[in-house]
Amino acid sequence: MAPRTFWKGYLKLSLVTCPVAMTPATSDNEKVRFHTLNRATKNRLVSHYVDAVTGKALDEDDEVKGYERGENDYVMLEDEELDAVALESTRTIDIETFVARDSVDWIWFDKPHYLTPSDPVGEEAFSVIRDAMKASETVGISRLVMYRRERAVLLEPRDKGIVLWTLRYGEEVRQQDQYFSGLEKIEVEPALTALAERYIDEHSKTWDPSMVDDPVQERLLEIIAAKKKGRKKPAKEKAEEPQAPRSNVINIMEALRKSVAAEAKPKK
């Protein structure tokens, strides 16, 4: 069963418009979540905002957003002022710009969403927009109010639908040159690269979602299941202690040879 749609609106390309629905492509609903309880009563605890100076709890009507411009000096902004800077339309994805798909680096991508036509009448217009981007190997750039903020979004044709990515803001992205430019270029021996490539080839597999399973989540579920049945929690497996290197000098060639040779031996 498909997840419930969390956004409905319109996809617009010049004079071509179609109704669409959007759903987050990822979910954390399956994660183990905890409530904070009073150990004595087992009642849930609630949190309140408290004045940092007076210690008094505040009503929601007394809360206001503030931008710090100096020590204990703030510019206060009301909700109406914050809403005024948002886009006028929060329900239309108007694509006015297209860029080559491979020109947008991975670091700009934030959250993925599935975009599909929400009405059979609009399926043809949706397909025209999707297939035109696919044929031209481009993605669309637009802006939309999502998660209570105006976001730049990227629309990428994928299979029979479109994946809409929210993009990170410019001030969120750190340029790699700040970190990589100081690294020295080292000439690596071809024999070393060949051995490393051989090891990689022997360990290459077809991608499978099970590769990113959460072992902590599984362990938590085991503990919860045991407590439900009144059993003791499972014993924690002792992690192997990493062995200290026998020398500060590492023979990379020898290490790679041993790695490849170990894989070549038949497993018992």
Automatic annotation (TrEMBL):
<comment type="subunit">
    <text>Homodimer. Interacts with LigD.</text>
</comment>
<dbReference type="GO" id="GO:0006303">
    <property type="term" value="P:double-strand break repair via nonhomologous end joining"/>
</dbReference>
<dbReference type="GO" id="GO:0006310">
    <property type="term" value="P:DNA recombination"/>
</dbReference>
<comment type="similarity">
    <text>Belongs to the prokaryotic Ku family.</text>
</comment>
<keyword id="KW-0238">DNA-binding</keyword>
<dbReference type="InterPro" id="IPR016194">
    <property type="entry name" value="SPOC-like_C_dom_sf"/>
</dbReference>
<feature type="domain" description="Ku">
    <location>
        <begin position="55"/>
        <end position="184"/>
    </location>
</feature>
<protein>
    <recommendedName>
        <fullName>Non-homologous end joining protein Ku</fullName>
    </recommendedName>
</protein>
<feature type="region of interest" description="Disordered">
    <location>
        <begin position="228"/>
        <end position="247"/>
    </location>
</feature>
<dbReference type="InterPro" id="IPR009187">
    <property type="entry name" value="Prok_Ku"/>
</dbReference>
<keyword id="KW-0227">DNA damage</keyword>
<keyword id="KW-0234">DNA repair</keyword>
<keyword id="KW-0233">DNA recombination</keyword>
<dbReference type="GO" id="GO:0003690">
    <property type="term" value="F:double-stranded DNA binding"/>
</dbReference>
<dbReference type="InterPro" id="IPR006164">
    <property type="entry name" value="DNA_bd_Ku70/Ku80"/>
</dbReference>
<dbReference type="Pfam" id="PF02735">
    <property type="entry name" value="Ku"/>
</dbReference>
<comment type="function">
    <text>With LigD forms a non-homologous end joining (NHEJ) DNA repair enzyme, which repairs dsDNA breaks with reduced fidelity. Binds linear dsDNA with 5'- and 3'- overhangs but not closed circular dsDNA nor ssDNA. Recruits and stimulates the ligase activity of LigD.</text>
</comment>
